[in-house]
Amino acid sequence: MNTIKLSFVAFLALFLSACAMGPQLAQPYQLTAPPPIESNGGQFMSPYTSDGVLAEWVNNARNAEMGAAIGGMAGAYAGQKLAENIPFFGGWIGQEIGNTVGREIALEAAGGEEVIRGTSDISFNSLEELSVWMYVTHSAHPHYQDALESAMAIYPELKTVYTQALYAASARSGY
């Protein structure tokens, strides 16, 4: 009986330690920031300017979060209706519609693509690079959460890419 209890405790300890040894997120200072494009010529605009302050469009985009949420709800409703007729793909289609509508509303609230490009002087060609750069260079900024949420309202894909990019960068750095 004691052998069974001891085996169970050993197994439980091994299992719990394996769970705790999952991927680790490195601290910002432990990672290297990818170099930004020093213009607005990239596909994704930075919510920070080259002098480290929030881009003007971020203030506008704070209001965009409400617009993105409205778009997401509209997409969820559309997905629900589609799911009634298309069992496997209805939810996914609804989510895509919600992201598209939410992004359009967020862009409008931020002043449009022209305002975003016009008030940004740093850009990136991938959301992964933008994610890691923001984390490494600005995560201690007092308005980092606002900047991140604004960027996510404008680029809805950033919601899924952000954490994955940070874990991938951490793994490449040995963490």
Structure explained in plain terms:
There is one protein chain. The longest helix has 30 residues, at 56-85. Helix 2 (56-85) packs antiparallel against helix 3 (90-110), helix 2 (56-85) packs across helix 6 and helix 5 (127-138) crosses helix 7. It contains seven helices and two strands, in the order H-E-H-H-H-E-H-H-H. The protein has 175 residues and is mostly helical. It has a two-stranded antiparallel ribbon. The protein is 65% helix and 2% strand.
SSE topology:
Layout: H1 2-20, E1 44-45, H2 56-85, H3 90-110, H4 113-118, E2 123-124, H5 127-138, H6 144-154, H7 158-172
Antiparallel strand pairs: 1-2
Helix pairs in contact: 2-3, 2-6, 5-7
Could you give a short description of this structure?
The protein has 175 residues and is mainly α. Helices cover 65% and strands 2% of the residues.
Descriptive labels:
single chain, mainly alpha, 7 helices
Oligomer description:
single chain
Strand residues, percent: under 5%
Round the mean pLDDT to the nearest integer and report it: 78
- The structure class reads mainly alpha
Total count of strands: 2
- Main beta sheet: 2 strands, antiparallel
Widest sheet, order of strands: 1-2
Question: How much helical structure, as a percent, in the residues?
Answer: 55-70%
Residue windows where pLDDT falls under 50 for at least 5 positions: none
Task: Based on Cα principal axes, name the global outline.
Answer: globular
Rg: 21 Å
Topology order in helix (H) and strand (E) letters: HEHHHEHHH
Number of helices: 7
**Intertermini distance:** 41 Å
